[in-house]
Amino acid sequence: MTLRLPAALAGAALLLAACAAPPPAADGAPPPDCPTARAEVPNADYIGRYAGLENAVGAREFAQDLHCADRFKAARFPAGFVTVFGSSRIREDDPAYALVRRVAAEWTRRHGARVPVMTGAGPGLMEAANRGAREAGGPSVGYTTYYDRPTAPDPLRPYGGDPRQALNGHVTHGLIFTSVTARELAMLRHSAAVLVAPGGTGTEWELFQLVEMIKSRQLAPVPVYLLGDRARHWASLQVRLDDMVSRGTIRREEVAFLRFADDADALVRQLEADLRLR
């Protein structure tokens, strides 16, 4: 017996099937695959190839990075991540390291199975967050790219491109991007909440990119917390924001979503309320 669907239902079924499948590339080629090499990097769920400077990354490789990151999130952690941005150069003896590690551990014990901690998978405060999450027994996610030091650096290929050196030792689920721009964009798009720890120019790039995308309504609003001693780490940021307000280049209410946190337990409780996970 052949079952025939009414025309309307058949059309709907075709539409659903088309939406479920990844779209083809603009040139009609099939969607990119998501390579990995678990024998070499057992904690990597995706490994994009090293292409050198960002100028050399092609559109298809950029699209592959985003496609594979979206596929990973949808399959493993669809609720997104508590993303931690912070310096790679702040070490274990700094109070910020202990704060980030404790926040990550406490959050992971409570909600890490559903909304894991994610970082850029490097050393310093990224390591602190991944370490806290792993020590708490939950997933510890890292989105990174290539920063390994080659023996003979080339100006056009300043890194060695060795994926075995891309993830810190506390990451349980890692993605290694070809494009640093795609990596940063994926981190922002996949965040359910963002914790910005003390850092340098890289962390400020991430912070201001996040602020601008939320302020200009290019990104769904998420909770954003600035971690650590407010007077020590964030006074200069407050001065810059106040200056922008005084010159009329931003309005104070546009950045009112930024909040400060220096107590791990209070922050975890507030995040639970923000994400409605109590």
TrEMBL record:
It catalyses: AMP + H2O = D-ribose 5-phosphate + adenine. SUPFAM superfamilies: MCP/YpsA-like (SSF102405). One of its GO terms (molecular function) is AMP nucleosidase activity. Keywords: Signal. Residues 1-20 form the signal peptide. It holds the Pfam family Lysine_decarbox. GO terms for cellular component: cytosol. It is an enzyme of class 3 (hydrolase). This is AMP nucleosidase. It comes from Ramlibacter pinisoli. The lineage of its organism: Bacteria, Pseudomonadati, Pseudomonadota, Betaproteobacteria, Burkholderiales.
